[in-house]
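lol ok so funny story. i was supposed to be doing the assay writeup but got distracted and ended up predicting the structure for this chain instead. priorities right. anyway since i did it might as well share w the group, maybe its usefull for someone
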Amino acid sequence: MNGRAHALRHNLLGMARVSPKTYRIVCGVAFASLCIIVFTGALVRLTGSGLGCVDWPQCSESKFIDVTSGHTLIEQANRLFTGVVSFSVIAAVLLSHITTPKRKDLLVLSWSLVVGVLAQIVIGGVVVLTGLNPFANMAHFLVSMILVASSFVLMRRSALRVEEPLLRSEATLFKPWVFLMIGATVLTLVTGTVVTATGPHAGDEEAVRFGFALTSVARVHSASMIVTLGLVIFLLVKSRLTSVTDSLRDAMQALLFATVLQAAVGYTQYFTKVPASLVAVHIVGALFFFIASLNIIIQPSA
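and the output, tada:
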């Protein structure tokens, strides 16, 4: 009897095995959903819907779905999309346990997404319960970017063999410059959140904002972007003088394009009094700018 039970369990596990190709698709869906929710979260702020839901974690104590106003609808939709994100992350975790072959690196990376999503749920509650505290809002966005980075690495890692390195071997040719560039990228994102927390799009007209002068924080953010742009140009020129693969050179050119485009949108929105539409474009651009930066150091799939 025990032999039959063991054989049945073995057969069921065999049927439940997931191929690397299928797992890569699941990781891609998780990555895409985490990118999309950055944009939906931005829409909540840009439409002044940050306090559209009066309760947390439900939008309303009396209604599961509350669409009593436009602000409520937008905030509710963003919260509901969190369910899509959670489902994709749970799928990535569960399937990482039954991929063939089973890999510890994929287990660790997928579980990091669970930790990040749980942290986001808690931070989201703090954001609402503190009336859109600017520090909580900054943390909400920055943790989202960490989740995007983790899912990007998981997606790329799932397409590589376990013995292949995660980082591009060519990236070592540019140390410490490439890591300075990544550091400048992160600084640009952080200073950008300070600008948002100081400016007019804090999620609600009554939301608390930082008491900084918008011109001052915008200049700091601009300076960090200029430093990043300078490092990107330097790395691209250096790559022209060094024997590197076309893949890395293309990645550097893509990053240069994303950086220049972000700078152009940023200056345009500043001199046009920060219209919400351009801020939305700038946030999407920040996402691509960050991913393009990661693409410089993370090994591409074959």
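The CA atoms of residues 96 and 107 lie 6 Å apart. The two ends are 47 Å apart (CA to CA).
back to the writeup now i swear
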